[in-house]
Design goal:
CATH architecture: 3-Layer(aba) Sandwich
CATH topology: Rossmann fold
CATH superfamily: Class I glutamine amidotransferase (GATase) domain
CATH class: Alpha Beta
Oligomer: single chain
Number of domains: 1
Strand content: 15-25%
Number of strands: 11
Helix content: 25-40%
Low-confidence stretches: none
Number of helices: 8
Mean pLDDT: 96
Strand order of the largest sheet: 5-2-1-6-7-11-10
Shape: globular
Length: 219
């Protein structure tokens, strides 16, 4: 496997970490295409822990984002602080509320959000070197703060999130669950995934398109 992609995770589980289906579909498609990958996550405490059966916050419990992300990566994962853009050809960030709670504070701050500094440091190299960057579900909301203003992205058609992207100087494009938005100038690819998906097959179509386009852009 000559090409290598970094995949950045934010925990394990849609409500307080990375979305499991989105992450798995991303890794599956990379493997199907013969592209190597390495997962990374910040070694920090989660914003909070959510009971995924009741969707309620579990009071008094704390978990580590890196340790939780290791569940998704079958233990093959490194701290985000060790991610070096020069070692990879592209980077992909799956969605899930961990993006809005652990990688940033978007869930509480909306367009006043701050992004985790370690994430910004990690992705700056990819952006500066014009290496492809893929984001899905809620993670495209990070782009105006992470990379630059004026980059076209999509979260589907959610008015609140797209409005926040616009308020931060981003460009939002309405998109169906099975499609992607590509900003060729900045080499950023986004898809709505579970911002719109009602079935795993719907999410898979858009995510596979995103990974396929990232692969094309690495050539």
């Amino acid at each position: 496997m000559t090409k290598q992609v970094a995949v950045i995770l934010a925990g394990c589980g849609v409500y307080d970490g990375s979305e499991i289906y989105e992450t798995t579909l991303t890794l599956l498609r990379l493997d199907q295409l013969g592209i190597g990958y390495r997962c990374f996550a910040p070694d920090i405490e989660q914003h909070h822990v959510v009971n995924h059966l009741t969707q309620e916050v579990v009071e008094g419990e704390q978990r580590n984002v890196l340790l939780e992300s290791a569940r998704l990566a079958r233990g093959e994962i490194s701290p985000l602080s060790e991610l070096v853009a020069n070692d990879f050809d592209a980077v992909i960030v799956p969605g899930g509320f961990g993006v809005a709670k652990n990688l940033s504070d978007f869930a509480s701050a909306s367009d006043n959000m701050q992004v985790l500094e370690a994430l910004k440091e990690a992705l700056t190299g990819f952006h500066q070197e014009a290496k492809p960057i893929g984001l899905m579900c809620i993670s495209p909301v990070l782009v105006p703060r992470l990379l630059d203003e004026g980059i076209a992205v999509t979260v589907g058609n959610d008015p609140a999130v797209s409005g926040a992207i616009s308020a931060m100087g981003g460009l939002h494009r309405t998109c169906s669950v099975e499609d992607i938005v590509v900003d060729f100038e900045h080499r950023v690819v986004t898809t709505p995934a579970y911002m719109l998906a009602t079935r795993i097959s719907e999410a898979a179509t858009g995510i596979f398109k995103l990974v396929d386009r990232i692969a094309e852009m690495m050539d």
